[in-house]
């Protein structure tokens, strides 16, 4: 049933990527621990725990909301509450990195959208941590490479 539903999905809508970026930070930051059950609380920013966020998106960041939570391009909506979503995401990424979170980005099917590519590059902790995947195989390769880079490998004799 799940595979059938997935096959029936159609491309539509927009991307409020700033919300996903914010939630990545909320789950890694101890500043939000009051919201989570004890077993889900984030560890402190103490240098003992490596905090890594992986952001995967189409990179468009083209949906923002007014102060009433109404999508800003809908009838009757006001101006975006916190600037446009791309700017919000870039600011969140900067603040996450400044707090000690390492960020990898995976832009999926960006085509030649230079603004989206620039956002992925700016959000990543380094240029080597920004991936572009144009198809499913490249997407799997990107996540495999990230997994290998963030895993700790210890060899003993």
Can you characterise this structure?
The longest helix is centred in the C-terminal third of the chain and has 15 residues, at about 135-150. The chain is about 35% helix and about 10% strand. The mean pLDDT is about 85. The protein has a 3-stranded parallel β-sheet, with helices on both faces. The protein has 5 helices and 3 strands. The radius of gyration is 18 Å and the shape is globular. Helix 2 runs parallel beside helix 3 (about 85-100). With about 160 residues, it is an alpha/beta fold.
Provide the spatial order of strands within the biggest beta sheet.
Answer: 1-2-3
Quick one: how many beta strands?
Answer: 3
Task: Give the CA-based shape.
Answer: globular
Supply the helix-strand structural class: alpha/beta
| Secondary-structure element pattern, one letter each | HHEHEHEH
Helix content: 25-40%
Return the average pLDDT rounded to an integer.
Answer: 86
**Beta strand %:** 5-15%
Q: State Rg.
A: 18 Å
Q: How many DSSP helices?
A: 5
The poorly predicted ranges are none
Distance between the termini: 48 Å
The largest sheet is: 3 strands, parallel
